Amino acid sequence: MANLSYSQAAQKALERERERVREKEREKELYSKGSVAQSINFVVDKAKGEFCLDCEEKFSLYLATILARDKENSDWLDEDIEYIDNITKYLKNISEIAPAISEDTERAFLEAVTCYCSTKLKYRLTKLNDTIKLHYRNEHVKSFEDLLSAKNDTNIITISGVCREYYKKVRYNNNIPTKFKEHIKKVGSYAVSVIGIVECARNVQYKSLFSNVEVYRAKPVIIKNQPIYSWKNIIRRFIDEDKYNRFMDGCSKKPEVMERISQVYTDKATQKQQPLDGDNVKQYIYLHAEMNILAFLIDNEIKSKVFIAVSKYCCYLCGLYIDLARKHGYRISFSGYHMKLYGRWILPHVKNKDFKAGSLKYILKCLDRIIKQKLNHDDTKSLSADPDSPGNSPDPDYSDGNYLYEYVGSFKVNNNNTYSFSRR
Ligand SMILES: [Zn+2]
User: How far are the Cα atoms of 55, 259, 300, 358 from residue 352, in angstroms, in the given order?
Assistant: First the structure.
């Protein structure tokens, strides 16, 4: 009898091990197909966003804007942790003494944000500068420049404030160069966020929300050496050798497609492109922030209404996973979807095995459909180009916010926080 149960247990262990191997295999297939799909169909559909957000959702989005890190896919740095602690402390402080106003705390808050976001903000300023050079004769561009020179301040958060003011005036005007208006909005989003956050913290209605704030930092999940099947291995599962050769011929005539393939299959560690038909291909993959939060909700079966704020719109694969979670009763919402497909995307490892297996199957099915569709065109004309990413910049509020400029005047001297536009 004892022997029998021993062999039953051994049998069960063996079965579990086989299932684990099968699951690993399916995941390898998922990550392999993700890489192929990104290469041949990067933009799956038009972006969807700008949904109507309530006050609390807007506040979350403002926070996501000022908390976004320069390097999203890396471990937390000491300076990130210190920054989050400080922001929490400042906001609790502002709220605690409301309706009185603590200028010192508000100034410290603004200075911390300006410093922490300076790399991202300057990157956006450079993009704005490029569109200004391009449209320097345009009357709207000129009126923006006038507004800016009237302020006579090169601090990046002041410039962001000017962009916020300007955007409020022109947001419904369609005669302005689109890119210029887009970049104005993106640069302005930092001032929009800090002012929006301060207004909420000053609001006595929200006192109990601020005093009860709890901060959780989820651990980033990164897999540096995920084995995947090669590009050719995957494509040959859909078409024969002849068709494959014709397809490759077509690709080789499209530099932007070859460029994307090369980018997707470049080994992050060595910066070299891996062979398209070899073994031992590896991929560097990571869990997107919204999936990290969603996995937490699923593991704890939190089915109340939750708005997940992200500094960017959700990608295509996150969108698929979110659809599935909603079908299982999770009431989650987001500010938008940019519909790009990133092959380095990690499937969340939730504790519920059925949910995990179901999500793997569902996403594989969608990837199969995408790859099949593109390959069956029998030409490479349909391989999509690479448009600029729509942002997730929050819309401006209706408050005045002029106190922002007054604080900047007494910032410590810091050349990192200034930017000068070059005209031509
Ligand atoms: Zn995503």
Answer: 34, 39, 10, 10
